[in-house]
Write a structure and sequence with these properties.
With 411 residues, this protein is an all-alpha fold. It has one domain. Helices cover 73% and strands 0% of the residues. The chain contains 16 helices and no strands. The longest helix has 33 residues. The termini are far apart.
């Protein structure tokens, strides 16, 4: 194998960014999720590399590093996307309960499937493995809803964001100790309260850096502080992602705080200007992280797992359960529109990242990682199918349905 030069690395990195941009354009034109195209590019590069005599291994630590930064960006982006107003409260409430109920049911059913498939594995370990597979990936949903109506788009964005946050908190709880006890539950609740209190101080400090600081270099300083807060919180076993979420929510909803002192120190107009810049830089940074993460993850996927009957059987059972539970909740319990919301069940960055973070004492030795790859690819293809075949409803049809629903309500 020839030595790879610095110029070749720069060429490869910049080429991936350009290709990712074109994948985004293709997504707009064809509705094929750009993340699937990035995964496909990584798989293609894995196949192509030996043919050119290029052989190298990517450390799982690199994937974990990119995934951790991406996780922070996703939660921050979610907070910056959640605009809380009185007229949006029903939508926010519905999307929250959709994320919560489907996540809890999915975790229970997948844990049951894993326990049935691997009887020797402890139930708690199966729950830990089920949690990442039950989280909807906002990193895939957010770039894939541009063609939907405003209501559908907001519902799916809120739902995916809540799914990420709830799933991460549940994962942190179940991996914090060897057993789930009352003391562990009380400790987790206390850590949440402490994290919220610390969030107030962190938010004020970050707001000062962004609004009152006269030095031009400030936004990536804020990102650095957020990463320090996250890693420090993990070392202290605190749910530090709550701090990042609260910071995003506060910045995006500053006008709701009617405290005269804070409004004088941080005027709404200045905060709004800062929020627009922060959203733009967060979106750009998320684009970069998403590009490299999914290409590298695709490069690590060995398609030989498709020849394993166990992968097909268990993976298909998990995907079928995810679809069935989503159908039951959206159509029967919630009576929400079914198409294309039912097909938005992608698993992605957070699923992979949490799998890498499963503690050694909770690892299941005979779990086939091909199941993880299968579920990610299958749910991505399902999202693509729902996105491609969805067509906007005519205005007349929407009016008729609304009239029909109002008549039914009166009856």
């Amino acid at each position: 194998m020839e030595n790879i030069t610095t110029y070749q690395v720069l060429l490869a990195v910049c080429s991936l960014i350009v290709i990712s941009y074109f994948f985004t354009v293709i997504n707009r034109l064809t509705r094929i999720p750009s993340v699937l195209l990035l995964l496909g590019a990584g798989i293609f590069l894995r196949w192509l590399a030996p043919k050119f005599g290029i052989g190298f291994q990517i450390s799982p630590g690199v994937v974990e590093l990119l995934g951790t930064i991406g996780l922070i960006m996703i939660v921050l982006e979610a907070g910056l996307d959640l605009h809380v107003t009185r007229d949006r409260m029903p939508l926010i409430r519905n999307s929250f309960f959709s994320a919560l109920v489907i996540f809890v049911l999915s975790t229970c059913v997948i844990a049951g499937l894993l326990t049935w498939w691997m009887p020797a594995a402890p139930l708690l370990h199966c729950v830990v493995y089920a949690i990442p597979l039950s989280i909807v990936s906002s990193a895939i949903v957010l770039p894939s809803v541009h063609h939907l109506s405003h209501e559908k788009k907001e519902f799916l964005i809120y739902e995916a964001s809540f799914s990420d946050i709830l799933g991460i908190m549940a994962f942190n709880f179940f991996t914090a100790s060897l057993t789930v006890t009352i003391d562990a539950t009380i400790w987790f609740g206390e850590s949440l309260i402490l994290a919220v209190l610390l969030s107030v101080l962190v938010c004020l400090a970050l707001m000062w850096l962004l609004v009152r600081n006269r030095i031009q270099v400030k936004f990536f300083l804020v990102f650095a502080v957020l990463i320090i807060v996250y890693t420090g919180g993990k070392m202290l076993h605190l749910p530090s992602l709550i701090t990042i979420l609260i910071f995003g929510l506060v910045v995006n909803n500053w006008e709701l705080l009617h405290w005269p002192l804070l409004q004088r120190i941080f005027p709404v107009a200045h905060v709004d200007d800062m929020a627009r810049f922060l959203k733009s830089i967060t979106a750009e940074s998320s684009f970069l992280i998403r590009t490299f993460f999914f290409v590298i993850f695709g490069f690590q996927i060995d398609l030989a797992f498709l020849h394993d009957p166990e992968v097909w059987q268990l993976g298909s059972a998990i995907v079928a359960a995810l679809l069935l539970l989503r159908f039951i909740y959206l159509r029967i319990l919630h009576r929400y529109n079914l198409f294309p919301e039912m097909f938005y069940i992608p698993r992605g960055l957070i699923t992979v990242l949490l799998f890498y973070k499963i503690p050694e004492f909770q690892k299941i030795s005979n779990f086939n990682e091909g199941v993880l790859f299968f579920v990610i690819l299958a749910t991505g293809l399902i999202l693509m199918a729902g996105s491609i075949f969805y067509r906007d409803e005519p205005v007349e049809m929407k009016v008729l349905e609304e009239e029909f629903d109002s008549e039914g309500a009166r009856l």
